[in-house]
Write a structure and sequence with these properties.
Blueprint: E1 4-9, E2 12-17, E3 38-39, E4 46-52, H1 57-72, E5 77-83, H2 92-102, H3 106-115, H4 122-131, H5 136-145, H6 149-162, E6 169-172, E7 175-178, H7 183-201, H8 208-213, E8 248-249, E9 256-262, H9 267-283, E10 287-293, H10 302-314, H11 318-327, H12 334-343, H13 348-356, H14 361-374, E11 381-384, E12 387-390, H15 395-413, H16 422-428, H17 453-465, H18 469-476, H19 481-493
Parallel strand pairs: 4-5, 9-10
Antiparallel strand pairs: 1-2, 3-5, 4-6, 6-7, 8-10, 9-11, 11-12
């Protein structure tokens, strides 16, 4: 038997091994795909081979991150699912997923098995199989015969050869990401690998993935290398867009722009709200305030509240709705949201329809994903002319901060720069990227920089997620080939058919 121990930390179960080696996240490893279920285009530029187990708490916890990653890179990722059981004698859940994959239903089975949070009984596996419409005679027969145990054994053998020491373990074009990591780590690795795949593609290999990992290391070895922890640098300017339409308060040419990622169920955000109201009252048109959504997963009512606010913004009433939410903090039931909408003067039929069909759900998810990809890990997080402030601040300290930025802005404007060009100029010097809607980053009118194809793709998808077909069509016009196909697929899912 493999030398393994089970451990439980805060209720999360994972796997650890004796004499474990480690993977260097900067290196490429020669990782076999095996015979596990595969999702996504066979010719995708990025292949993610994942070893996990349905009873692993960390594997469960990372699933929302993987869902957001897939939404950010539609059509660019192929997922290969492989199994490394916590308990070698328990493989029922993995066998059930493979039996479902044989009938073309891997994804729904995969999601439901993780939702059960642990060991699955035979009765539970059969119930899920029936719910997703499997041929039950075939499903039962394959479980009884142990049809897929050889595949699972091969997954375990390959994991041991590579030196995998826990679950979940991901290889992104051979680059390792171990454990339940942040979306930023996944995004940064995917971006690196997209660039590497593009270069490799020029040589037209018969199998892109095999070419990308061909010279990779065969196994892990002792190393101190790990994913470097990331923190936003308060002295660095970041490229931060202006979010969803209708979420801005103050003029486009304000010398100071405050972009806040916030959560309507966050008490610290509620504490920050009157400070920002004070800033707006004191500084007037010298300040522009932009609200961006980051509903935290542990706030169960925050997502619907954010969607409601986006629905209010579509009617030009975001700030009236925003003020109602903070004035009645803690009340975020559907009835409460309806009441706030009524008080804000919204057309209630349109508002209710937007919430009923979750019209802005994907747009809110994209906003939160953009924050995480930038390195934001909590709310409130604000960027003042691109420079981050983490956590809430009192009026006095915020006034000092605004005064400092205004003084710097005035020095620049005194040299003849038009006020409307200030924020675009600041953004041109920033680091990072806005992966929700790059077109929301203002650009200077003095120098036009053609949008990169990938940024244009994201901008088209952002327009479709907020059901703005006219803007999506305009932005998509220059796209061709794979980029055009990817945006067409995403937009069709939002009910928009691009020409």
């Amino acid at each position: 038997m493999r030398a393994a121990v089970l451990f439980v930390v805060l209720g999360l179960v994972g796997t650890a091994y004796a004499d474990k080696a480690s993977f260097d996240p900067k290196l490429v490893y020669k990782v076999p795909r095996g015979d596990g279920p595969s999702e996504g285009p066979a010719d995708a530029p990025v292949t993610i081979v994942a070893w996990s187990d349905y009873a692993c708490g960390y594997c469960n916890r990372v699933q929302p991150t993987l869902d957001r990653l897939e939404q950010m890179y539609p059509g660019q990722i192929r997922w290969v699912h492989r199994t490394l059981p916590l308990d070698e004698d328990y493989t029922l859940a993995a066998e059930a997923s493979l039996a479902a994959a044989a009938q073309g239903k891997f994804k729904p089975m995969h999601g439901r098995l993780f939702a059960l949070h642990g060991r699955v009984t035979r009765a539970e596996a059969e119930l899920v199989a029936r719910e997703i419409g499997l041929d039950m005679i075939r499903f039962r027969g394959e479980l009884d015969a142990g049809t897929y145990r050889k595949v699972i054994a091969a997954d375990m053998t390959d994991a041991e050869k590579l030196g995998i020491s826990g679950t979940p373990t991901f290889f992104i074009n051979g680059r390792p990401v171990t454990g339940s990591q942040s979306l930023k780590i996944f995004v940064d690795t995917v971006e690196d690998e997209l660039a590497r795949a593009a270069k490799m593609h020029e040589s037209k290999p018969a199998d892109l993935y095999e070419a990308l990992v061909a010279t990779g290391k065969p196994t892990a070895e002792p190393t101190d290398a790990d994913h470097e922890p990331f923190e936003l640098d308060t002295a660095t300017i970041y490229r931060v867009g202006l979010g969803l339409p209708g979420h801005q308060l103050g003029p486009d040419d304000a010398p100071v722009t405050i972009v806040e990622w916030s959560d309507f169920q966050c008490p610290y955000c509620q504490k920050q709200a009157p400070v920002l109201a004070h800033v707006r009252e004191k500084y007037g048109d010298q300040v522009r305030i932009v609200y961006r959504h980051m509903p935290m997963s542990f706030h169960r009512d925050a997502m619907l509240a954010a969607e409601a606010a986006a629905a209010a913004a579509a009617q030009g009433k975001f700030w009236a709705f925003h003020d109602q939410v903070w004035a009645h903090f803690g009340k975020l039931s559907r009835a409460d949201l309806d009441e706030f909408a009524q008080s804000a003067g919204l057309d209630m039929a349109t508002f209710r329809a937007a919430l009923d069909d979750r019209r802005y759900h994907n747009a809110i998810v994209a906003e939160a994903s953009a924050a995480e990809a930038l390195g934001v890990d909590g709310t409130p997080t604000l960027f003042v002319n691109g420079m981050p402030i983490i956590g809430s601040r009192d009026q006095e300290s915020f006034d000092k901060l605004i005064d400092s930025h205004l003084a710097s802005a005035k020095q620049v404007l005194a040299r003849g720069l038009p006020k409307a060009e200030l924020y675009p100029l600041v953004m041109s010097m920033g680091t990072g990227a806005d992966r929700a809607d790059p077109s929301s980053i203002p650009e200077t009118h003095q120098v036009h920089i053609e949008m990169r194809a990938d940024d244009r793709v994201r901008s088209v998808m952002a327009a479709c997620r907020r059901r703005d077909g006219a803007r999506a069509t305009t932005l998509a016009a220059p796209l061709t080939g794979d980029a055009k196909r990817r945006v067409a697929t995403v937009c069709a899912g939002e009910g928009i058919d691009l020409p």
